[in-house]
Write a structure and sequence with these properties.
2 domains; 11 helices; alpha/beta; 7-stranded mixed sheet
């Protein structure tokens, strides 16, 4: 049997497990390339090769796990974010493409890449946001916090991989705990799925990703509210909070920001036109 024939059979199995056909075909190919160490060009050139016994055994095992709806990122241990490869484990949320909008927003907000100051990534997870911003702002002090010690270990490994481990300070704890300020920028992709919606998530998310990084409590804004309250007393003058939230949480974001007396509120929409990222600024003369 050729590699292509085995991949096609795997695609059929994934479809039968409930995975959408277009996703199943892509996943079957990605898992094959992962085991073979091939890029896509090599795969298309060499996919008619005969399957080896070792590959057949490992590949069938991976496909069986994917059929049980384990995310591909956990099976390969990798996920791309901002053009960089990050190690991913079940202790970390899998980075989503829409979270790159957070990075874009920060770069637009602070176009001068030579600035210094303190930037805090709250709920760093895999560390993808902290690492990217450490690369983009080489003179800033980066602090990354998370309530999960295993997630912090993954983030530290990713920082080392991308050559910025000495630039990032790691804090184990919730939100801004232990940080007295002043802070120039606070960036966060906090948990924002409502407690009620957790059970309705896709199996890949509901059954495999860390609930602590997903569940935002009743209304999905528990962490968002706490973070805004802390930001209002720890940001420097003209310091800003940049935060991702659920597409139905814009009104809550604006309400809580106003109550905390933060100003210059902005809401940025994602590629689907949905409100996704909020910006608010602290000013002493507000």
């Amino acid at each position: 049997m050729s590699i292509l024939s085995l991949v096609n059979a795997a695609c059929t199995r994934l479809i039968e497990s409930g995975i959408r056909p277009e996703e199943a075909g892509f996943d079957a190919e990605v898992l094959a390339r992962h085991l073979l160490g091939w890029d896509r060009a090599t795969y298309f050139t060499e996919r008619h090769r005969k399957v080896t016994r070792a590959f057949d055994k490992e590949y069938i095992t991976l496909i069986a796990r994917r059929a049980r709806r384990e995310p591909v990122a956990y099976l390969t241990g990798q996920r791309e974010f901002w053009g960089l490869e990050f190690a991913i484990t079940p202790d970390t949320l899998i980075p989503r493409p829409e979270t790159e909008l957070l990075i874009e927003t920060v770069l637009h907000l602070r176009p001068d890449r030579s600035i210094d100051g303190v930037l805090v990534d709250v709920g760093t997870g895999s560390g993808c946001i902290a690492v990217v911003l450490a690369i983009e702002f080489p003179n800033m002090t980066i602090v990354a916090t998370d309530i999960s010690q295993p997630a912090l270990a993954v983030a530290q490994a990713n920082a080392k991989r991308h050559g910025v481990s000495e630039r990032i300070e790691w804090r184990h704890g919730p939100q801004l705990a232990g940080l007295s300020g002043p802070i120039d920028l606070i960036v966060s992709n906090p948990p924002y799925v409502t407690a009620q919606a957790m059970q309705h998530l896709a199996p890949e998310v509901r059954d495999h990703e860390p609930h602590v990084a997903l569940n935002g409590g009743t209304g999905g804004t528990r962490t968002l509210r706490a973070l805004i309250a802390e930001a209002s007393v720890k940001l420097v003058n003209n310091g800003s909070l940049v935060v991702e939230f659920g597409c139905d949480q814009e009104a809550v974001f604006r309400q809580v920001v106003n109550a905390a007396h933060l100003t210059d509120t902005q809401v940025i929409h994602d590629i689907q036109g949905l409100p996704r990222v909020g910006v608010a600024t602290y000013r002493t003369n507000r």
